[in-house]
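Troubleshooting: if your tokenizer reports a length mismatch, compare your output against this known-good record of 296 residues.
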Amino acid sequence: MKQIAIIGPTASGKSDVALELARNHNAFILSIDSLSIYKEIDIASAKPAPETLLHVKHFGINELFPHEHFDVTNIIDYYRHACREATQHAKNLIIVGGTSFYLKSLLSGISPLPEMSDALKLHVKTLLQDLPRAYEELLAVDAEYIQRISPVDRYRIEKMLLIYKASNMAPSQWFKEHPAKPVIADLPLFEIEVSREVLRERIVKRTHQMIAQGLIDEVARLEQQYTREPHAMKAIGISEVLAFFDGHCSKETMIENIITHTAQLAKRQQTFNRSQFKHQTLLPLKDIAAAAEKYM
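Known-good structure output:
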């Protein structure tokens, strides 16, 4: 089995080039996208159309319902499953997506987590109802490490609390005693280079396509079924529609907010990719396929 990864900011054209390569080079696809993981979040995630998913097997898409627990260890499980399936069917594997933190976790590894009961998870969720107090509790046991985490970063505070409560150890000590091990040893990595002007044009076009496809109705269905509590309901494209439902903005402003927030996300993604990966091949979209297929 041969494998490559294609990264780049949202709306840069990653999925299309990955599909082209998969069709031409006998490959499965592993999606590393934080929203496509969820079933029923179809338009907001801009996931491939159902017919596309039938023709090219994807992993990491439609894996969980929006209210189900997810963390980066799921991505490692999806990767290992994809490798087994690709090997069994004599396929190659293409890793593609905008959530490069997941790829970084595959390349660098993550520390195993202590065993956590459902009762403990429920207890921590109760503690998180007072987020400042939960943060202060962590500071008291592991100040130097916890100071790196924002006091409003609910996701990471929850993770650190779970580790602390399950292990009775400061998170930094747990990580020291349980070091991360890489999941992937070597991987050809290609990053799409795109100007911010071109990227914004693509974001504007995609946002209007999402509205035309029924984004507002999709968010209404999601809210009715899952409430606003799940982490996925705070994603870009969903949170702005919820603000529109609440009367905080007009439909036109809602659309502009989605475009602005998506562009801001794209900038953060580009910054992350340049800072976290040192050996990627940086090329315009039109040249990515030709360069990547040499490794397939």
